[in-house]
Amino acid sequence: MSEIDTQETSPIARLLETWSHLTAEEKLQTFRSLPAGESEDFFLALDAREHAALFQDFNRAERRLWLRFLAPDDAADLIQELPEELRGEALAMIDEKIRREIIALLSYREDEAGGLMSPRFVRVRPDMLVAEALRYVRQQALFVDPIHYIYVLDSNQRLLGVLSLRQLFVSPAEKRMSEVMEDKVVTIPDEMDQEQVGRMFQQHRFVALPVVDREGLMQGIVTLDDILDVSQEEATEDIQKLGGQEALDAPYPQVPLPEMIKKRAGWLMLLFVGEMFTATAMQQFEGEIEKAVVLALFIPLIISSGGNSGSQATTLIIRSLALRELRLSDWRRVMGREILTGVSLGGILAAIGMVRILLWPNRATAYTEHYALVALTVGLSLIGVVLFGSVVGAMLPFLLRSLKLDPASASAPFVATLVDVTGLVIYFSVARMLLTGTLL
Ligand code: ATP
Q: What is the pLDDT, as a whole number, of residue 174?
């Protein structure tokens, strides 16, 4: 068996997989029955929401034990997840020094750099000799985990430089830290939004980045694994919004039914009301439908093609904006591309649709003797509708971004609804132009 297989089937990994299916009572029993050593590893593998849930079910001794077991940033996250009335009690269980660290962390919002960071990092003074610094780092290693870089701070906690553990080891023992450190340090402001923090990591490829406040005083570090979770959360949020609903803010199985309904109903109602306009649009063309019932046959085909092409475009652009591959100023270029893409895609669908009508065995009975004109109407409408869908789908995220709203709120179903109504208008207008005098 490969190493990866062994890891995947370790008892902890197996338990983590089934954890969300257990009731609170079962979770507590299972956790208590874990052998020593395993329970620590398992507890560390849980997220803050699960920590807080277990914490509430623990007895007092367990609460104290496990809260103190966590690193200050994880303890702060646990406390943030607790109901208001339990937070004071939880804080009181922690030693004074760490409590101060946690209170400082709690003053940050969860989704900014300060809320993500760990206040523990290895620090040395600029005038220390490398030999001294090595000894000093050894002492700190007892309390700091993990150690990737050594930060050089002056007596006011101002960040002056950084170096890797390897650099520290290979530097001559008699040099001063100020001589061997890297003094152009990439830092993150403590109020930077977590999405932007993620981008800093992508850009600079360090395993940890220092967080500084407005005065340049170092507050903590954010590590790559903190940011991995964030990237996943942000992507989940975008995908949920893209699907036409509010983000759930919790794993699907854990969202209570009433909240699930509430989060989904809002958009669904809005889309439903939007779709009602298709009825209004169709009323405008009632005369045409009455005269040429054959036109009604192709309504679903035409409007769904517009909706689908709009959903494609909107999904691509939202993701590209989120990844910063596209900027707001790129909208013209995107519009040009989508016009070409829309016409080409519409042309492909039109060709398939027209061949279908023109080669259908009993076409004259199914689509009247003017079936060639019907085919042309369907073909031209498809080009128009797909073109419109692609352009609107691509432009809407830009519009939302320029209004300082989340482009992901454009949502594929929203674009589809918008394009459905216009698709009908395009279809019947083309029909009026081509079929007046024959079918109409
Ligand atoms: P080395 O490059 O010394 O082998 P490494 O591979 O362990 O160490 P990297 O993560 O590749 O370390 O970092 C490369 C170098 O970047 C480190 O030596 C360190 O001096 C520097 N560095 C680390 N953090 C920062 C930062 N925030 N800003 C600027 N430079 C940094």
A: 93
